[in-house]
Request: fold
Amino acid sequence: MKAESRERRRASFWAAVSVHLGLVCVCAGYLLPFIWMVSTSLKTGSQTQEVPPQFIPHPWKWHNYLDVFTHPTFHATLYTRNTLVIAILTVLGTTLSSAIVAYGFARIPFRGRGVLFGIMLATIMIPFPVTMVSVFRIFRWMDLHTAAWWGPDNALQMLGTFKPLWLPAWFGSAFNIFLLRQFFMTLPRELSEAARIDGCTEFAIFWRVVLPLAKPALAVVALFSFMGVWNDFLGPLVFIQRPEQYTLALGLQAFQSRIGGTPWQLLMAASTLVCLPTLILFFLAQRTFIEGIATTGGK
Amino acid sequence: MTSEERRNFFKGMAFISPWIVGFAVFTAAPIGLSFYYGFCDFALTAPRRAPLWTGLDNYQQLMHDVVFWKSLRNTMYYASMALPAGMLVSLGLALMLNARIRGQTVYRAIIFLPSLVPAFASAMIWMWMFNPTMGVFNMLLGKVHVAPPDWLGERLAMPSLAFMSVWGVGNTVVIYLAGLQDVPRELLEAAEIDGAGTWRRMFAVTLPMLTPVIFFNLIMAIIGTFSILAVPYIMTSGGPNKATYFYTMYNYDEAFKYLNMGYASALAWIQLAITMVLTGLAFWSAKKWVHYG
Reply:
């Protein structure tokens, strides 16, 4: 009996060692791109061209991080401002509208609810590339027709502005609605019943009783939709043409693709800066992230 | 309907009305319109001219379109590497990260970090890592005296992109880890008492209990893989010699470069059909391998 348990302990010791070994190797690989990015961002221009390349910059050129903001063709401040404008409008819109819709799906038993909810879930599976061309056409159609009806001065002006990027967010997004609905379902019914007896309207119950309790779930939605905008490349690529309206994604891509001699140290410094906000958000709100992703996995 | 039911119906509709409008304008209408446009010839920028009905012309042209088949084959080739690699690596990592060992939270954080990097930024980083003369991969290979390959050359570009995609599996790993929490401890303990070893417990208890989560991740991976655009667009812009020209790129180019609205709509519909068929296949096969309850 004793010998057996000792054997077992030894086996589990070696199992733990091999798991550690495996994870250390994988983690080293996963960290390598970060290390390479930061290392390059601190090199001088000529050092990035060295063959073979070195990991340790010599000298450490911290100034690259300032040069990113003063570079004549990469307008970091402008791109950040543009991205933030779209992000703020999207986060506000999708959080508010998705919460309203999710409340309807979670707390009001109405006829047809199941079917509509099923349709909504199915739309999660439609990738943006499938609809982007027609969505573009619809925005163009809105511009042309409102110009014809109300005169060119009163036309809607969708294309050429940021609206195609943030306006759809104000009509709820299927993914966020699903997430919030799951959360609303867990809130006790008695709360809304009590409020109803006190004479609250349905909207007041939603606004004053349910929403304040849903802050953690709303934070998840806000966080993910912020990251969605921050990381989006295809949306701006389709809907933004003028360089002064570029988001960070487009600005960085344009900076890189300009033919000949990409200044990699600046590009990597800019990439590091672009990664920072989400990394900081993650370390501040790790639990929100992890629980949010877990919920989407059908928990 | 009783008056109570009617009241609830209107209340419910009022609450979900934002989604109904959004669904109509930004999902249903685009899909319906692109179905119609797929049978038409007209330019994206056309003023209010009505689309010209050309019947099956676009689809017939597609059948003989070399670029269409090339981009479709490319996408399938990429998916055939990136899908299985991503599924296996994420599941394997999740199982390792689920072991109760010291430093677990640190390991978990490190593997999740790349999921936070925007696709366009990771495209920049990896381009620079893959650089044939000044990149880190060939520097490391040089240290062990291996001839440096041309990572983003015609032959290797696609496998390189698939390799790179594994870096971003952190999200999937987190979903697996959440699923692993739900594997009942009693079942694992019962199996252990019955004499099942670590591997046996994993294949007979843990993995079967995890199949719904595996299924969910598979569906998400299929949809994600077939709509990839940002990374290859930035890293290779479809080259060299169209070796990484993805289906979504062709769709984008037809619409916004050549302004062929009709042709692009036909392409979009075929993508929708392919995605639906593949997810349909996954759902159909689920009956055979997914355990619910």
Notes: The first strand of chain B starts at residue 40 and ends at 41.
